[in-house]
Amino acid sequence: MPGSRREAERVAARSSAATKLAASDGKAGRANARLTARDGIPSELTVERLREIYRIMVRIRQFEEAAEAAFRAAKMRGALHFYSGEEATATGVCMALQPNDYITSTHRGHGHCIAKGGKLNKMMAELYGRVTGYCGGKGGSMHIADVETGNLGANGIVGAGIPIATGAGLGSKLRGDGRVTVCFFGDGAGPTGAFHEGVNFAATMALPVVYVCENNQYGMATRATFANAGPGIWARGAAYGIPGEVVDGNDVFAVYRAAKKAVARARAGDGPSILESKTYRQRGHTIHDQKGYRSKKEIDEWLKLDPIVRFRTQVEAARALGAPDFETIDREVAAELQAALEFAEASPFPSLDAIERDVYAE
Questions:
Q1: Is residue 1 within 8 Å of residue 342, measured between CB atoms?
Q2: Number of helices (H) and strands (E), helices first, in the chain?
Q3: What is the phi-psi region of residue 252: left when phi exceeds 0, alpha when psi lies from -120 to 50, beta otherwise?
Q4: Is residue 357 part of a domain?
Q5: CATH number at residue 155
Q6: Which end of the chain has fewer beta carbons closer than 10 Å to its terminal beta carbon, N or C?
Q7: How far apart are CA 182 and CA 247, in angstroms?
Q8: Quick one: the chain helix, strand, coil %, rounded to 5?
Q9: In terms of Cα–Cα distance, which of 314, 338, 347 is closest to 59?
Q10: Is the pLDDT assigned to residue 130 strictly greater than 60?
Q11: How many distinct structural domains can be found in the chain?
Q12: pLDDT in tens, 209-258
């Protein structure tokens, strides 16, 4: 599709321009397969794992850019909630999980799905409303689920994933399957009753759940500090007798370390934890958001903390990967997105006789 190819080329160009902010001359030597802790990079993360981390974050960023281009070209309908700027949180957390672990997602869930192993073509087809999408084209952006990878689904209701994650944790404990569930939720879910009910029950029953608050500073247009009392959502752990930790959500290694500790605790049968990841959504609440409630200065300051650029800078300084490695991944991901766009646009819409299907169990 010529239109799709142009969109993919624009996405690749933007990604390449962004990542070159931290590019070196590419002549730095390569580190051994394992890096030392003094580099600020967890020693168990091999060079191949570092490539995987970068690839996941770039997939998320480029997917969001491609989806926005398609939406503005009137190829999609509805609303899109972009994850741009928050890539380190989903990536760092999911790198600490096993393939058969579970996650619950949110309305801003594209990044979660990709980080947990979701297929870009099925995701894009779902956004296009086509039958080849994850939910047959009937769920759209806010309701993508992929049970095969352990993604129990995104949710258009703020905080609704919290009791679902708690239930998944209860199921794992009863079955004794050793799985951990990560519950992603935003700061906007902090004031909900679902938060208290879900976390309180999980703490009471010592369930294997990690509650990850993605504090991107705003619930729609309301500042997180206005809507949530106390020093932070992480601090509420003390009230339930469980650990709470706050972390720099734009530092993928900091997120990974904190998530790894919380996941290990849950898997050992010691119960849930709360992890608050302080990050920033670079786009508005939805694609329609004019962002009038925040200043250009604020946005610019957070853009300086872009998680992808920070990752590149740190990894290059550690002499683990260089600009050629990043540019190769950028091109490969752009090709993936091109294929995903073509797959989506070539797929049919659901037929009318499918309108009542999937409403009731058959």
A1: yes
A2: 13, 7
A3: alpha
A4: no
A5: 3.40.50.970
A6: C
A7: 16
A8: 50, 10, 40
A9: 338
A10: yes
A11: 1
A12: 999 999 998 888 888 888 888 899 999 999 999 999 999 999 999 999 99
Structure tokens at 133: 């999408």
d(CA 38, CA 177): 36
Q: Is 63 helix (H, G, I), strand (E, B) or coil?
A: helix
**Do 145 and 118 form a contact (C-beta atoms < 8 A)?**
no
Q: What confidence score (pLDDT) does residue 40 get?
A: 83
Alpha carbon 322 to chain centroid, angstroms: 25
Query: Could you tell me if residue 274 is inside a domain?
Result: yes
pLDDT recorded at residue 18: 45
Domain range for 267: 2-346
- What's phi and psi for 27, nearest 5 deg? -95, -5
* 300's tokens: 């610019």
Collapsing DSSP to helix, strand or coil, 1 comes out as coil
> Are 62 and 257 contacting, i.e. CB atoms less than 8 angstroms apart?
no
CB atoms within 10 A of CB 358: 12
Lowest mean pLDDT among 45-59, 278-292, 323-337: 278-292
- Count of CB atoms situated within 10 Å of the CB of 98: 11
Residue type for 135, please? C
214 token code pair: 């993605």
Nearest CA among 286, 289, 276, 204 for reference residue 240: 204
Sign of CA dihedral 114, 117, 121, 122: negative
44 occurs within a structural domain: yes
DSSP secondary structure, 100-144, as one string: T-EEE--SS-HHHHHHTT--HHHHHHHHHT-TTSTTTTSS-GGG-
Look at residues 5, 83, 81, 94 and name the one whose alpha carbon lies nearest to residue 52: 94
Q: Decide if 362 is inside a domain.
A: no
Q: Are strands 273-278 and 244-248 parallel, antiparallel or unpaired?
A: parallel
pTM of the model: 0.88
